[in-house]
Amino acid sequence: MQDFALQVDGLSKHFGSVVAVDGVSFTIARGATVALLGGNGAGKTTTLSMLLGLLLPSSGTIRVLGEDMVRHRYRVLPRLNFSSPYVDLPHRLSARENLTVYGHLYGVPHLKARVGELERALELSEFLDRPVGKLSAGQKTRVALAKALLNRPELLLLDEPTASLDPDTADWMRGYLRDYQRASGATILLASHNMTEVERMCDDVLVLKGGRLVDQGAPSALVGEYGRATLEEVFLDIARDRRAETMP
Amino acid sequence: MSTSSAARRVFAMMLRHLYILRGSWPRVLEMAYWPAVNMVVWGFTSQFFQGHSDWVARAGGVLIGAVLLWDVMFRGNLGVALSFMEEMWSRNLGHLSVSPLRPHELVAAMLGMSLVRTMLGVLPAVALAIPLYHFSLFDLGLPLVAFWVNLMVSGWAIGLGVSALVLRFGLGAESLAWVMVFAVAPLSGIYYPIATLPGWLQPVAWALPPAHVFEGMRALMIDNLFRWDLFSGAVGLNLVYLVLAGALFLRTHHVARRRGLLLNVGE
What we know:
The structure holds 2 protein chains of 2 kinds.
Chain A: E1 4-15, E2 18-29, E3 33-37, H1 44-52, E4 59-64, E5 67-68, H2 73-76, E6 80-83, H3 95-105, H4 111-121, H5 137-149, E7 155-159, H6 167-184, E8 187-191, H7 195-201, E9 204-209, E10 212-217, H8 219-225, H9 231-239, H10 243-246
Parallel strand pairs in A: 3-8, 3-9, 6-7, 7-8
Antiparallel strand pairs in A: 1-2, 1-4, 4-5, 9-10
Chain B: H1 3-22, H2 25-50, H3 54-58, H4 62-89, H5 93-97, H6 103-133, H7 142-169, H8 176-184, H9 202-206, H10 209-223, H11 228-259
Helix pairs in contact in B: 1-6, 2-4, 2-6, 4-6, 4-7, 4-8, 4-10, 7-8, 7-10, 7-11, 10-11
């Protein structure tokens, strides 16, 4: 039997009469890197929030690392982590202080040594003792990634991990995540608008539109299926309902 | 879940706020500043009244004691509410909510920080009253602990209620942290006996724990009598209000998860 990091079945979220996510079902195998794609308002952030337990589903089930996320989220939270440019770390605390606080929250053993490891791996030394509020966007993203990796998560959820980064830092970040995934066997689910990033990093893609899962598959398979040259063109086809015209 | 893990997470949250205090001496100074200024003003007022009022003259320091103890309640409330709003101001609630930190552990950390903030805020004013007015709150002895704890718990209950409202309605409701506690002040009998209030208002006042505490303080300072009935009334009411406020906060946290408020924390 295949071991899944994530099993989502019939997941829906309604805000009054607004349907944000509508009956989404998918599975993600352990060790895979998967992208959640979709235009603005497609339901990516809502889906990620439900997977993290930040938001309660209206219906459906979510199993994360084998545990029911609605009923037993505190069993699984120490084994996952997340990063988003839309959720800050306290600005008045230095990067080191933030990592220390979150290290204690996650029960990270040998915390000082772990912070030292991340300091070296993510090249944080130059600004580790500076308040997070005074860091550049790229530095903040690196600190947020260090926080997300503190507990060596088995499942890493990333919301637009390279948003606001320059191409060089973004490329470095993708390389680091790929290396981390290979070394740890972790599962990564990322929401992104960057199609090149998705093609380079991901084994699979889940495409959301209007709160529904409208397609899924390996990036190269989707490109072939839609008869396009790039995943970006596939994304545009889906966003503009052009699939019928383009399919042979 | 082990108790030591829970204690470690509560410690982590308190550490987060202690880092802020360590890195900002103006904040620490500001915490002690207002209680000290308040005490100085009421100290002079008290000195004036002592020469013009038999009632005040009989109980030297009753007004200074009242103002210092009122600050315990005020700071107790602010200590809880500001610790929570700090998470909203820094947009950190999302990270905390996907960490292993349970909501009740967050509450415990907020109460712990309130204790620290209250001590930092009120103790300098208490110390300053000794050389300035020859009034030592510590002369109250053990009853001081009873008054202090009861008023701080009353402040906690209000602070938790305010935090719940801010979580539910956003930072637009943050001024409630200062407003709510003052709504209770006229009914608390801080500077006057509850009997001064209109008859129809007195039952409302007696339903509030601080009314029992301040009456108890006056009984001790004027009649040298520790009123156990007032003490037990305050303890009982505080337990009820603290449980209700804690339940409101936890319920609101659950509602916030249903409505997606943990990520949308702005005004």
